[in-house]
Write a structure and sequence with these properties.
globular; 6-stranded mixed sheet; 3-stranded antiparallel sheet; ABC_transporter-like_ATP-bd; binds adenosine-5'-triphosphate; 2 domains; single chain; alpha/beta
Amino acid sequence: MQNHPDLVKLEQVSVRFGRQETLKNISLSLHDNCITTLIGPNGAGKTTLVRVVLGLIKPTSGSLWCTPGLKVGYMPQKLQIDKTMPLTVKRFLTLGAQNASAALLEKTLDQVGAQHLLMHSFHDLSGGETQRVMLARALLRDPKLLVLDEPVQGVDVNGQTELYALITAIREQRKCGILMISHDLHLVMSSTDHVICLNQHVCCSGHPARVSNDPSFIELFGRSQANAFALYNHQHDHCHDTHGEVIVDHPSLAEKEVITRA
Ligand SMILES: Nc1ncnc2c1ncn2[C@@H]1O[C@H](COP(=O)(O)OP(=O)(O)OP(=O)(O)O)[C@@H](O)[C@H]1O
C-alpha cells in the first residue's frame, strides 16, 4: 500500500498442529496507519494467524518479517482472571505496565472513553466497559501495531458500533497499523482499509468493496452474511476496479447498479 510502510510481512506461512494444517501458504503485509480486518468462519485459523504475527507461534514453514523495534499492543479474545482476586481497573492496567504514570493511565482511559472507571472493580464492568479497558491496556505501550482479537465480543449492537468508531478514531489519532479479527462484516466494512478472508488459506483479500464482489466471499459466508453486506451496501451507485477504486465511466452506470443477493 503506497505511503504506508510495511510493519509486518508474512511470506508463504504455513502452520501445522500434528496432522492438521491450520494455515496454508499465507502471504500478507500489515501497514502503518492502515486497518486490516481478518474475517473467516469458526476454526478458519484467524487466531492462529494473529499468534504468528505476535511471534507466539513459529510457522512450520515460510517466513515472518517485522520492522525492527516494532511495538505491538495486543487485545486478546479472552482473559481468564480469578474473580475472587480483588482487582481495580487501575491495578489491572498497571499489571502489564508497572512504570505507567497516573497521568498516562488517565489519558489512555480518557482516549477510550473510560476515565470514570479507574477505581472500579474490573470484575464488575459491563461487556462494553471491559472491552474499552482491555483496549486501553493494549494502548499503554504506545504501539505502532495494534492487534485486536474480536474486540466487540460480549457487547450489544449499539456498543459494537461505538467501539468500531473508537477503533477508527484511534487509528486516526495515533496513525498506527491495526490488525483486527471480526465476525461483524457489515459493521466492519465501513471502518477497514483492507479485508482478508481466511479459511486456512487466503480466499480473497483487498479493499472491502472488491472483496464483497468476490465469489469466494459469498461461498465462504453464505447467503445470510452476503445479505447483511448487501444491506450495508444498498446505496451503491458506482462500480469499483480490482483495487476498490471507483470506475468513473463504467458501462453499467447507464443503469443504476443492482446489488445481487446470492
Ligand atoms: N495450539 C493448538 N494445538 C492444536 N490445535 C490448535 C491449536 N491452536 C488452534 N488449533 C486448531 O486450529 C484450528 C484453528 O483455530 P483458530 O483458533 O486459529 O481458529 P479461528 O478462526 O480463530 O476460530 P474462531 O472464529 O472460532 O475463534 C482449530 O481447529 C483449532 O482447534
